[in-house]
Amino acid sequence: MLLECGMQEEGLFRVAPSASKLKKLKAALDCCVVDVQEYSADPHAIAGALKSYLRELPEPLMTFELYEEWIQASNIPEQEKRLQALWSACEKLPKANYNNIRYLIKSWLSLSTRTR
C-alpha cells in the first residue's frame, strides 16, 4: 500500500498520523479487516502502523543475540567483506525475522528502481 500510494508523500515516515486514525488502523490490522480505501488517502497512517509494528516487536528484527555481529560487520571497511559478513549474520536470523527484513529490503529496492 505504501509503495502504491505513499512514496511521493513528503515526510512519509517523519510526519505522525493522527493518534485516533493510527489506533483504528492497528485494531483493524490485528483483526485482519482493513478497509484499504479508508486508508489509501492517508499514507502517514500506514507508515505509522509499520513503524509501530517494528517498534513493538518483542525483539528487534535483527535480534539482540546478533547485535555485536551486525556492528562488527558494519565496521568492515572493505565492501565485499562487509557484505559477506552482513549476509552471514542474515543467515543466522530466525526465519520470521529474515522474511520480514527480506520483504522490507525488496520493497525498498523496488521503490528505489522506480524513482530513478
Automatic annotation (TrEMBL):
<dbReference type="GO" id="GO:0005096">
    <property type="term" value="F:GTPase activator activity"/>
</dbReference>
<feature type="domain" description="Rho-GAP">
    <location>
        <begin position="1"/>
        <end position="116"/>
    </location>
</feature>
<protein>
    <recommendedName>
        <fullName>Rho-GAP domain-containing protein</fullName>
    </recommendedName>
</protein>
<dbReference type="GO" id="GO:0098887">
    <property type="term" value="P:neurotransmitter receptor transport, endosome to postsynaptic membrane"/>
</dbReference>
<keyword id="KW-0343">GTPase activation</keyword>
<dbReference type="GO" id="GO:0061001">
    <property type="term" value="P:regulation of dendritic spine morphogenesis"/>
</dbReference>
<dbReference type="GO" id="GO:0035021">
    <property type="term" value="P:negative regulation of Rac protein signal transduction"/>
</dbReference>
<dbReference type="GO" id="GO:0098886">
    <property type="term" value="P:modification of dendritic spine"/>
</dbReference>
<dbReference type="GO" id="GO:0043197">
    <property type="term" value="C:dendritic spine"/>
</dbReference>
<dbReference type="InterPro" id="IPR047165">
    <property type="entry name" value="RHG17/44/SH3BP1-like"/>
</dbReference>
<dbReference type="Pfam" id="PF00620">
    <property type="entry name" value="RhoGAP"/>
</dbReference>
<dbReference type="GO" id="GO:0048786">
    <property type="term" value="C:presynaptic active zone"/>
</dbReference>
<dbReference type="GO" id="GO:0032956">
    <property type="term" value="P:regulation of actin cytoskeleton organization"/>
</dbReference>
<dbReference type="InterPro" id="IPR000198">
    <property type="entry name" value="RhoGAP_dom"/>
</dbReference>
<dbReference type="GO" id="GO:0007165">
    <property type="term" value="P:signal transduction"/>
</dbReference>
<dbReference type="InterPro" id="IPR008936">
    <property type="entry name" value="Rho_GTPase_activation_prot"/>
</dbReference>
<dbReference type="GO" id="GO:0031256">
    <property type="term" value="C:leading edge membrane"/>
</dbReference>
<dbReference type="GO" id="GO:0014069">
    <property type="term" value="C:postsynaptic density"/>
</dbReference>
